[in-house]
Amino acid sequence: MNFDLTEERQMLQDSLRRYLRDKYDTAVRNKILESDSGMSAEIWAELAELGVIGALFTEEQGGFGGAGFDIAVVFEELGRAGVVEPFLDSALMGGRILAACGKDDMVEEVIAGALHLAVAHGEPDSRYDLNHVRTAADGTKLNGRKAVVMNAEAADHLIVSARMSGQAADTDGIALFLVAKDAPGLTIQGYPLLAGGRAAEVILEDVEGTLLTEDGYKVIADVTALATVAQCAEALGAMETATHLTKDYLMTRKQFGRPIGTFQALAFRMADLLVEMEQARSAVINAAGFFDTAKRDLNISGAKNLMGRAGRLVAEEAIQLHGGIAMTQEYELAHIAKRIVMADHRFGDTDYHLERFIELSAA
Amino acid sequence: MDMSYSPEEQAFREEVREFLHTEVPAEMRDKIRLGKELTKDEQENYHAILNAKGWLAPNWPAEFGGAEWNAVQRHIFEEEAAMANAPRIVPFGLSMLAPVLQKFGSKEQQDYWLPRILNGDDWWCQGYSEPGAGSDLASLKTTAVLNDAGTHYVVNGQKTWTTLGQHANMIFCLVRTNKEVKQQEGISFLLIDMNTPGVEVRPIILLDGTHEVNEVWFTDVEVPVENLVGEQDKGWTYAKYLLTHERTNIAGVGFSQAGLAAVKRVAKAENTNGKPLMQNPHFAARVAQVEMDLMAMSTTNLRIISKAAAGEAPGVEASMLKIKGTVIRQEINDLARRAVGPYAMPFASEGLEGANDQIPDPHEMGPVAGDYFNNRKLSIFGGSNEIQRGIIAKVKLAPGA
Questions:
Q1: Cβ atoms B343, A201 nearer than 8 A
Q2: What gap in Å lies between CA A112 and CA A54, rounded to an integer?
Q3: Residue B207: which of A256, A338, A355 has the nearest Cβ?
Q4: Which of A327, A345, A352, A353 is the mutation pick for testing B, counting most B CBs within 10 A?
Q5: Tens digits of per-residue pLDDT, A233-276?
Q6: What angle do CA B79, B82, B83 make, to 5 degrees?
Q7: What gap in Å lies between CA B372 and CA A143, rounded to an integer?
Q8: A22 CB within 8 Å of a chain B CB
Q9: Is the ipTM of this complex over 0.90?
Q10: A16, A350, B138, B277: which could join B270 in a potential S-S bond, CB 3.0 to 4.6 Å?
């Protein structure tokens, strides 16, 4: 048993943490949040150069990592700094789908930071159900509507899931297509997101796509598993920041003539948060460590549910223990708390993964 | 024990409901339902509609032009207003300052300021909290020094969390007039015209992008001595009196009932794993639990209200209601954001530029995640829930209690 990071991962963590501490403070990020594109091309390029994207792919895929722990290390650091650039959706999800479909030349571009992608899978009434696809494929002609598609406006290509056969909830009959951003019949209605970045409603009217795979459900399920690990790690990093800020504030803010952290009523709640942080870290380790085993989904659902519960507690308590200051836009915690809570709205929320865990653990 | 409303109270409820649906513009109620901010004009218009009916100041005695409703009537109005998505009455002049003036103000102050509050001539805001004086309000540092001629106070310092201060032309402030005595004994209550030179209002943008609070800075601001309420150095007594009024409707029963109804509406329409979310046992259990809590809290609220209607002053129960009421409202905000699933993420703050993007809102719930974050304030302001627990413990654990 050894819970230390390997030397390579430790180096990646150190360089990433240093870069983000120096280059991505609250003021810089708040400017990015207010910008039209909702992201910084410069930050994207520099992080790609640091190897952030390469670490998300295996050597066979042209990267230098790609395992659960590589992904966890990267996204924990991105989460710690509240990074809003779409590494999860564009690079990890988009890139790994292309890798699974043998598009090696495109993956190379993704790793270089030169190609942006969006995964258009969820639909207005699919909620978190991965098998729910109504968008129809008639040959390679696509018709339908996709909901809350992350990074759709900035993407060079969209990866669109569509049904070739079967009913809306069947796992069989779902295919994936590559659609160019300027394809005729494609409408992208973009909007900002509460926790930063942008998404869009995507409408497809007789849009011509290129078939990537007819085994779409499996590819989507696998990449969603990977993305859920990344999302849990990102939330963990953000929770680390929230607890650090809170600890510091409790020991510097004075009321009634002393630091408020010396009031037992607050100190005990801080202690509870720290206990939950250890649980959260272990849950992410479980999700990453069992990724390539038969226990993958059980551990992922366990982690996502725990992160949902611990995340809500940490975000709400961090705000409450701070008081009014944490309610202000310009204070770091405001953004961080939003990242933590909004993580619950991706890839299945706390209740969704509770139900899935019950099913898997009873099996 | 009789838990029913009297025929008169039921008739009153009907009258209120009818009034809110016919007299309050539908566009205004739609805005509230969809979580949009009212403009200053709209808010003033709402006050004028209530004033024309004689319902703007339900808690004022008739001699000052109030409706003199008892606590049960006020509760009925609040409940109906929430269900009808009517706006909130801006409380600063009407239910915070006015009771203080009525009890401690001079005849001249009452005759001048109270009619102006009813007519909407002044928009009042509250100058209590300071950057260094939040929960520990008595440590406030903004100073007011009487000039040599004895005609003016000169005010210096900073207030913060000033709600809707951007609309206000008047602010009532707690200021330090004596540093030599115990903190609570050197505070005075001043009325300050915000158009006086040296007053500056700076916006604070909240985490959901809204501009509802401000900083107010005072640099050598001259305030006529006539604007001192009551006696110098006695302001803390008046402030405490005001805080008991700030806590009316603290339970927010109406808001919670309206919020819960909306959650159930969405959970019946939204499908997960092939069936309505409302049939998901985990989600349904959480909805049920908060509904049970709300039913009980609503009765606690009525128990306290009927005591108040009988003339008993609410004591520590107000603190209990504040804690339970805010926890329930926040839980409903959490359920609302979960109910809409991925559609909780899209968000454009009205306060920011480029907010013209069409935000998808399939369930017409408004910015549920923004509301979830905005309402974290409920357990922080008006005496944080930790301060309320301190009050409960102090009273209930006192020797002989």
A1: no
A2: 8
A3: A338
A4: A327
A5: 999 999 999 999 999 999 999 999 999 999 999 999 999 999 99
A6: 85
A7: 35
A8: no
A9: yes
A10: B277
